Each structure stands twice: as C-alpha cells, then as structure tokens.
Amino acid sequence: MILFVILCAVSILGAVLLLLAKSERGKSIALYLLSIWGMAIAVISATSLPRNEVGQQILAWGFGFLAVAAVILHIRAGSKGMRYASCCLAVLSCLGGILKLFFI
C-alpha cells in the first residue's frame, strides 16, 4: 500500500509539474524525469508478472516504449504542438503504467 501511494504521488506530481511548467527548460527537465519514471514503472510492472502472462508483459513494456517515444518526439520536435504531444505521451506512459501495475 505504501509503494502504491508513493508511486501515485510521484506520478501525479510529475504530470502536474510537466503540464504547468512555464519555462521551456523546466518542461524539458520534467519531461525527461517523467519519461525515466514511466520506464521504471514499466520495468517494475513487466518483471512482476509471471512468465506465462506474455500479453500483459507486452502491454507493460508498451507503456515504457511510450516514454521512449515521448523523448524521441521531444528531441525531434519542430513546433510547440509536437512538444505538447510529447508531454502527453510521457504523462500517458506514466499514468498508464501505474494503472497497469495495480489495476489491470
């Protein structure tokens, strides 16, 4: 229960900081940290499943790859719209990983 509360609190705090940050440098730092957090959640989620749950493991790794896609999209972004899309992918990766880890 304590782990669940800590993971949820850090994820929600990171998402709020990412979406409400004013400076572009602050958004970039929050995006990278939240993406790393999303990848860590994916690793925890995928490795906590038994070997015969292949579909669930693929789903868990998929949330981690969303974080990788967010970082790549942010690096290659040419417009603010693409940067916002990368932020949304990072948030989706993190919160989707939490939901997958504890509820699905």
Automatic annotation (TrEMBL):
<feature type="transmembrane region" description="Helical">
    <location>
        <begin position="83"/>
        <end position="103"/>
    </location>
</feature>
<keyword id="KW-0472">Membrane</keyword>
<feature type="transmembrane region" description="Helical">
    <location>
        <begin position="31"/>
        <end position="49"/>
    </location>
</feature>
<feature type="transmembrane region" description="Helical">
    <location>
        <begin position="58"/>
        <end position="77"/>
    </location>
</feature>
<keyword id="KW-1133">Transmembrane helix</keyword>
<keyword id="KW-0812">Transmembrane</keyword>
<protein>
    <submittedName>
        <fullName>Uncharacterized protein</fullName>
    </submittedName>
</protein>
